[in-house]
Each structure stands twice: as C-alpha cells, then as structure tokens.
Amino acid sequence: MMAHHPPHPVGGIPMNPGGGVGGVGSMLPTPTTGEGQGSVEMLQKALDAVKMLRCNVTAFFETIATGPKLESNSSTTTQEERERAFKSVFTVFMQRMVDNVKEMDANISGMTQPSPGPFNLGNSSFVNQEVAPERIPLYSQLVDSYKWMEKVHEYSGVASPILSQNSMKRTYYNTSLSAKRRRTLINNYVVAPEAVNSTINGIANSYNDMKIIITRPLGTNAALNITLGRTLTAVIVLKGWLIEWVVIRGVLEEMMKEDGTLDFWSESRYKVFQKVTDNANAAMLHFCAPTHPELSVKSFMTWLHSYITLFTQPCKKCGLHLNNNLPPTWRDLRSLEPYHEECKP
C-alpha cells in the first residue's frame, strides 16, 4: 500500500490523510480481500492518491491566503524569517503534490486496459424478452402499438381506392357531373384604348373647369395630363382601368421634359401640392374596385375635381383657410368636404 505522510502541522494546518481537508475520505469504501487484487487494487490506490492530492492542494491555498503560522512570537520575528518560513512551507507542499501526482500516474498506468469491443452487459441484453405486465410496461405498450398499426393499415386500404379515383381533385364527384359554369375573370389590364378614351372624354365633358389630354407614350397604356382650372395640374398613369401613378403639381410648374415628353416622376416644388399628391395616392387605393374598374376611375376623378376649391374653401372643422401655413389639403372620400391634415376625421 501507499506510504502515507504522518499527520503533523505544516504552516499551522493539520493534515488528515484519511479524511483530508476535502472531506472525501469516507465517500469510498475500503476494498475487501477478494477485491484487492489486480485492477481493483490499483484503482483504489489511484483514488487514495487523488484524495491526498486534493488535501494538499486545499491546505496549500489556505496557507497562501492566511500565511504560515510561526511557533515563536510573531511580534519579534523579522521579515526575513517570515519569508524563509513561507518558502519552506511552499517547498514542502509542492513536493507533496508532485509525489501524489507521480503515485497516481503510476497506479493508473498499472491498471489493466479494457479489451476492445463492446462491453458485456450481462443479463441486461434480455430485458426486451420480459413480457410480465406487472414487472415492466413494455408488453402493454407493444400491444397498443400493434393494434394502432392494424387500424392504420385497415383505414389506408379503404382510402386508397377512393383517392386513386379522384387524383388532383378537390371533390369526389365525377367530372361529368361536377361541371360548373365559372365566372369569367375580369382583367383590368387589357382594355381597348377606344373604351378608355370614350370614358375619359365623358368625364372631361361633365366638368367645364377640368381639361384632360390623353397621350400614350408607353404603348397602349394611357397617360392623362389634367389641368384643374387655375388651381393645379395632375399626371395620372393608367394600366387598362387601373390607376398606377398620380403626381400633383402647381399650374405654373412644368409638366413636360426638355425633350417634349410628359414628366411622370418629378414631384412638386411646393409643399401644398406634395400633400395633395400623398392624399391622391391614398384615394387611388381607396377607390380601386376590381369588379367595377370603370366606376373606380370615375369616382377618383370626382374626388380629384373637388380640389377646384383648394385655396378658396375653408376647413370644415376649424373654419380656417390656413393651418400651419397650408390650406385644407384633404378631401373626405365620401362627402368631398375639405379638411386640414390636423383636422381630418
């Protein structure tokens, strides 16, 4: 067996090889005579070395924290004597820890290496053969799984011929009996230019103070250049009956580029018309009606015509012409009444 150092005070801390500072001496039982052979004995010696190493390491750090306790009067000791005592205690602990590590390595290297391959688990390999319900619930669980799988096979066998007769269909009716007349989808993008021209000209003729010029610089899609009295001008881009873009500018602002084409993208220099452009884009989305595309264009034109009184009609709520140096730039989508941005309902 391993040669233990006798318990004597080093640095004022008593050493206990059996229990140790770590308190692990009573955790492991002492091997019996039959077990103290071969690998078991080497394992026990290695564990004892680990316990001793833990004890010495704990005592070493406690001594460093508190300092070595000298037997003579501490008031008369010099600094040189205290340093000499500290070095002595440090050397003793380091030598003990080195001896413990060497002893542990020697015991581990002397242990018998396990043979390669799977470990023998004994009778645990027969646990799946236990069918006693009172001892393990595996049998009842297997029975329930078997019944469930039998039902799945039965139901799938019945469902398979039914589904094979109606592949890629949402109903189980025969195609000859389930033929239904479907409503023709309305395509708002493909509209004859003559139909668009007729409707826009009818809208322009209904208002004496609204002038609309229809051009088609982008193919069959119409671009409307609208002049609303002496109040504002607008550019509206249509794709079929669908309003895709609206820009509002002042009367004195240029609507054409230098090359003579219509300017679709430049916003107004004035904040009042920038506000009206934002509101016009919101109204464009509000009046969009895929089922009644022509009505949506007429409703938007009616709403846009209400801006003829942009600088003359006061706000419906506050009764003022100007609020934050701006006229009422919002028109109610139903009543067409003017409101400031801060006053709109």
TrEMBL record:
Key words, A-Z: Nucleus, Transcription, Transcription regulation
Coiled coil (residue ranges): none
A cellular component term, taken from the record's GO annotations: mediator complex
Intracellular or extracellular location(s): Nucleus
Annotated stretches, region: Disordered: 1-37
GO molecular function: transcription coactivator activity
Biological processes per GO annotation: regulation of transcription by RNA polymerase II
Tagged with keyword Lipid metabolism: no
Domain of life: Eukaryota
Family classification: Belongs to the Mediator complex subunit 27 family.
Designated name of the protein: Mediator of RNA polymerase II transcription subunit 27
Gene source species: Folsomia candida
